[in-house]
Design goal:
Layout: E1 3-7, H1 12-23, E2 27-32, H2 40-49, E3 60-64, H3 70-82, E4 87-92, H4 99-104, H5 106-126, E5 131-137, H6 161-179, E6 185-191, E7 193-195, H7 214-222, E8 229-232, E9 244-245, E10 247-249, H8 250-265, E11 270-276, E12 282-283, H9 284-295, E13 301-304, E14 313-314, H10 319-325, H11 333-350, E15 360-361
Parallel strand pairs: 1-2, 1-4, 2-3, 3-15, 4-5, 5-6, 6-11, 7-10, 8-13, 9-14
Antiparallel strand pairs: 9-12
Helix pairs in contact: 1-2, 1-8, 3-5, 5-6, 9-11
Bound molecules: nicotinamide-adenine-dinucleotide (NAD) and uridine-5'-diphosphate (UDP).
Length: 363
């Protein structure tokens, strides 16, 4: 079975991707510092996975550590080789992701996101691992003034350090691809707006403090932990005056990673940028109303000023991903709202219970 090195695997997208990889039969080695995630998250992944696999404990290994620790990453590659499960590919999700924090603390963001990636790529070269799927973001497109969906060759115009980090990492990967004597296989997945959770309600997004993104914020308001949602702007040139985004179920996004790996494995050499979204635009008001309808709950909201730096319309043209990956999003907005809320309720009520499952350590 191929072995995947999954950085940031304890996080929101990482846990769902980890589960998808395990279900597909891959061995998975997770490296995560847990700076923005909880240790129990991967245990919950195994709790879900054990229902479908007898051998559930021996496929997943966890290493707690920092992506900037080059010695540790080298050790991971070596230990994996010694265990007769050499790393075939890397899924690089680890990083810091708050736009606001990246403005307030740019050095930390460049250090972790770009510095950490460089160390990882150096280790990959050293250990002859030339296949990588990188978590990029639609944020690299910056403020769009167009109502068409965005193609991968659309203008790249990041407007904050976080977006600049993502563009830089994409560029570094392109330089490696162009300059290396080896055949590299590289996919930059530009995620649009992942929301929702696994339908079990056992894993999902756990933002620290008050969330910035709309969906976890809605969940907090729905739970009564925050009084009211502010909808930023009601006078945008859209069908109901609120901003439009392309929300994608996190399990569909997780599947896209597996499909990207399958796609790269069939290639001798490849460098590809792919928009990962549904291609469907949803306004903030439509999202709020769907959430209320599907979950039969109350959600206080009010209209507020436009948020600085917002695009009013950011929707993926996902044609390239549909054509190349043999992948198609399966879940709709109602699924996203239902599953996200299920996680929120479950999380609140049960998740403090510790799991009896122990994670296998690689080191
Ligand atoms: P997340 O914060 O839940 O997951 C990231 C994980 O990386 C966390 O578990 C965190 O502890 C870990 N991490 C952070 N710094 C680290 C370090 N120095 N060393 C080791 N581990 C470290 O975020 P997510 O939403 O799961 O995002 C995963 C990736 O996808 C990130 O690279 C993010 O930038 C990107 N992305 C996310 C979104 C989104 O809306 N969630 C959209 C586009 C791109
Ligand atoms: N938004 C909002 N209230 C909030 C958070 C977000 O109205 O408390 C809006 C925001 O203006 C944007 C959409 O929801 O139009 C998605 O915002 P988010 O920050 O989740 O994603 P991004 O803007 O990075 O795509």
């Amino acid at each position: 079975m191929p072995t995947i090195f999954l950085t940031g695997g304890s996080g929101y997208i990482g846990t769902h991707t980890c589960l998808t990889l395990l279900n597909a039969g891959f061995n998975v080695i997770v490296l995560d510092s847990n700076i923005n995630s909880k240790k129990r998250a991967l245990k919950k992944v195994l709790e879900i996975y054990k229902l479908s696999s007898f051998n559930f404990k021996n496929q997943l290994f966890f290493v707690e550590g920092d992506i900037r620790n080059e010695n540790l990453i080298n050790e991971i590659f070596e230990k994996a080789k010694n265990k007769k499960m050499p790393i075939n590919a890397v899924l690089h999700l680890a990083g810091l992701k708050s736009v606001r924090e990246s403005i307030n603390n740019p050095l930390e963001y460049w250090d972790v996101n770009v510095g950490g990636s460089i160390k990882l790529f150096r280790c990959m070269i050293k250990h002859n691992c030339h296949t990588i799927v990188f978590s990029s973001s639609a944020t690299i497109y910056g403020i769009q003034e167009i109502e068409d969906s965005i193609k991968e060759d659309g203008s790249i115009n990041p407007i904050n350090p976080y977006g600049e980090n993502k563009v830089t990492i994409e560029k570094i990967l392109k330089n490696i691809f162009d300059g290396s004597k080896e055949n590299w296989r590289i996919a930059n997945l530009r995620y649009f707006n992942p929301i929702g959770a696994h339908s079990s309600g056992l894993i999902g997004e756990e933002p620290r403090g008050i969330p910035n993104n709309i969906f976890p914020y809605i969940c907090e308001v729905g739970s009564g932990r925050i009084d009211k949602l502010q909808i930023f702007g009601r006078d945008w040139p859209t069908r109901d005056g609120t901003c439009i985004r392309d929300y994608i179920h996190v399990m569909d996004l997780a599947e896209a990673h597996k499909s990207a790996l399958d796609y790269l494995n069939k290639k001798d050499s490849e460098f590809i940028n792919l928009n990962i979204g549904t291609g469907i635009g949803t306004s903030v008001l439509e999202l709020v109303k769907t959430f209320i309808k599907v979950n039969e709950c109350n959600l206080n909201y009010e209209f507020a000023e436009r948020r600085e730096g917002d695009s009013y319309h950011l929707v993926a043209n996902n044609e390239l991903a549909l054509q190349t990956l043999n992948w198609k999003p399966q879940k709709n907005l109602e699924d996203m709202c239902r599953d996200g809320w299920q996680w929120q309720k479950f999380n609140k009520e049960f998740l403090e219970n510790t799991s009896s499952i122990n994670l296998q350590k690689l080191i």
